[in-house]
Amino acid sequence: MAQKGSGGVVYQQASSDYFNKRGLQRHAGVAGLWGLGVAAVISGHFSGWNLGIAQAGWGGLLLATIIIGTMFLFMVFSISEMAAALPHTGGAYSFGRSAMGPWGGYVTGFAETIEYVVTTAVVGVFTGLYADAIFAGLFGFSLPLWAWVGIFYLVFLAINGAGVSVSFNFAYWMAIISLAVIAFFVVVALIGGNFSLSKLFDIAPEAGGSAFLPFGITSVLLALPFAIWFFLGIEELPLAAEETHAPQNAIPVGAFRGMITLIISALIVLVLNPGVLGASAIGKSGEPILDGLRQVFPNESIAPLLSLFALAGLMASFQGIMFAAGRNVYSLSRAGYYPTWLSVTREKSKVPFVALLVGSIIGYALVVFLPILTGRDGVLLAGSLLSMAVFGAVISYALQMVSYLLLKKNLPSIARPYQSPVGNAGAAIAMLIAVVVLIVLPLSPDYREPVIWLMGAFVVGLLYFGLYTRKRLVLSPEEEFAMKHKR
Description:
By secondary structure, the protein is an all-alpha fold. The protein has 16 helices and three strands.
């Protein structure tokens, strides 16, 4: 029997068997969430961030990182409060649904789908670039980028499909190894005599620029999307709510610890890696840590050998972001926003493998076909995909902060086991920064075209909901909570 809801939506009757086929399994605690959050992000410390130096110089990227770090810290506080009050797998979609109705929930969730599906593809490209450089240096062995990315997609589909305990344990240990690699780089960079502060400012200033800001103060805006790469993904932890023991307590603690870890790591990498390699050179590198190790260890075999460990960071994020993409698609499918067959889980492992598989196919298709459509490959392809991922991310971020403000206003009486220390002001600041990044994205001539294409895809997604699935929703936990507390 159909039931009408607010926003012109219609809910279809779902049997208990429907949810039995879409069950999840609890496993994680604070340590597991910390590992998942750090693992999802840490590849951004190994590559991607450095492209911002080509846009704004080292000083410009430093300022952009401070701005974006503030946005993420405030956002993590706000999201943790919402996750503790609404501990559902839907995460961002769940917050948007309860605060802004079905349309708000769908737009927020769809933007997050774009973020995670495309981010997996970006990490795949950087992982492929690292792997090819390492294997070419060690064994004289090379593969096309699309082949490397395909291999890694298959490997991490297998890891994510093995079960939630495997996923969390893999993420935790990869996060530990990745941080150890960065710590090792710190030691060898400082004691090897290759680091120099002057290398941070080796980009010749343009007219009106300076050594600190070679392309002028406005270039800081163009660096904002690349600074996001230092932190993008830490906000995924609410997607693990139904696979976490005591999520009301574990998510806020795990997210905060993860954020502090990432801030420290990002600042270390931002200073040391260009200080070894030089800002001019690192701004166009596809594997900046590997290039830094080559500088420290000129021997052609030692640097690639050490960089095998650097692959841990990229592999950690591949697994962590794929996890997030699968849970995001799963939650929107379980509620009927996406085709419901996407949310069926495996009987034994309780993993949403269909959602993982379909998200991987779409991400891999971007890696294969975007170079054909745009003529961009390698680092330029990665930068294009990165801009597309950030487009989805900042829409989701801004709407989640709007959701926070509305939930505080409209649902003041719901239980909030954790409360953000920065409150409404922090959420508003984070929202404004996200909106600025969204406005800036199409302004970069290097990456404007793919962002415009993605805008078109976003419109198609909105039409899909408005014309079709809006009449076919299901009362999932996220929808039931929203219906129960609607004003």
